[in-house]
Amino acid sequence: ANGRVYTPDIPPSNFFLTGATGFVGAYLLQGLLERGAEKVYCHVRAADTEAGLARLKHNLEFYALWDDTYAGRIVAVPGDLALPNLGIAQAALDELAADVNVIYHNGAIVNFAYPYPALKAANVNGTREVLRLASREHVKPVHFISSISILFDGDLEAGEAFLEDVDLQSLNVPFGGYGQSKWIAEMMMFEAQRRGIPITIFRPDNVSGDTESGIWNADNMAHTLLKASLELGAVPDVEIVMGVVPVNFVSDAILHISAQPESFGKAYNLTSVNQISFSVLLEMFTALGYEIDRLSFAAWKDKIYQLALDNPEAGYHAFYQLIEHIGAGSLEQVRMPRMDLTNTLKGIEGTGIGEPQLDLELITKYIQYMNPDTE
């Protein structure tokens, strides 16, 4: 890091956050402010700072997280992850580099249908630019929000557990451009650690709704499968086994763990202690009084496609590639990789941040949020 050494500024007061207009980003922004941040500089796609602040405020309001006391402490930084210097003007970049103590790099293009070249500029080059910012003026820790998808190589029968400290070079190339872009970005983070920039890496699984309000981001696979199953009144006869983790757990775990210097250099799998499958969902739906059929995968897939055609704005099409991939096999069980959570559970021990698991009470909350008319 240019011969500079990180000296912890205790406590850090000024933060730089990318991806603040997303779902997890909203919770990270609110979490930093609630934990006493003096200023959170938020990288945002916008014409100017005023438009940027309006976007950030709108996003927090959407997730019912806005508080008027935040207004003076959020600084919008217009830019673009895919551009050199994150698309930030030189003068603003110099001020940022001098003023910021800690970086949370949560921004990315999340698209499971795009190939790697379409994501490289934002997800890989953008990470490089964040690391360059981290070593300008003075060294700043970088906390990187990656994805569990770096551990999924498309083998749907494997289901082996992945250790958090797995050697990334030993993995098969991940399935899909998004997982690949995050895999390369993680390698860059570990290289930065070797060069003197403290880093932590967090790999959220399928992020589900808030455990209090049930509020959920609709562009997400777990939400899409849950909502589609309810709308169709059907689940496929293939077992898709996956981890689902509430958004407020993700942000609480990230903000708590990243604040402990002993976490530097480590990766954390953020997933649920129990994986969920369609059988379990079926039992839960039935317990709640829903009539749900089991269809062959082909019939269920046809229904999903029809649902997507009838509701183009619902985002079902974003997961075609994965659904096609599942349907291409003649599998009775699809296993997303199981995750080791040793570092994560150790990191949150004694904090009151509960172990994340999907149970009937939480599913009920989610269904009520998706269908407010239901009792």
Structure description:
The chain has 375 residues and is α/β, with parallel strands linked by helices. Helices cover 40% and strands 15% of the residues. It contains twelve helices and 15 strands. It has helices spanning 23-34, 49-62, 90-99, 116-135, 176-194, 221-232, 247-258, 278-287, 297-310, 320-328, 342-348, 360-370, and strands at residues 14-18, 39-44, 74-78, 102-105, 142-145, 161-162, 199-204, 206-208, 234-236, 239-241, 244-246, 267-270, 293-295, 333-335, 338-339. A seven-stranded parallel β-sheet has the order 3-2-1-4-5-7-12, with helices on both faces. Strands 6-15 form a two-stranded parallel ribbon. Strands 8-11 form a two-stranded parallel sheet. Strand 2 (39-44), helix 2 (49-62) and strand 3 (74-78) form a beta-alpha-beta unit.
Search tags:
375 residues; alpha/beta; seven-stranded parallel β-sheet
Short description:
With 375 residues, the chain is α/β, with parallel strands linked by helices.
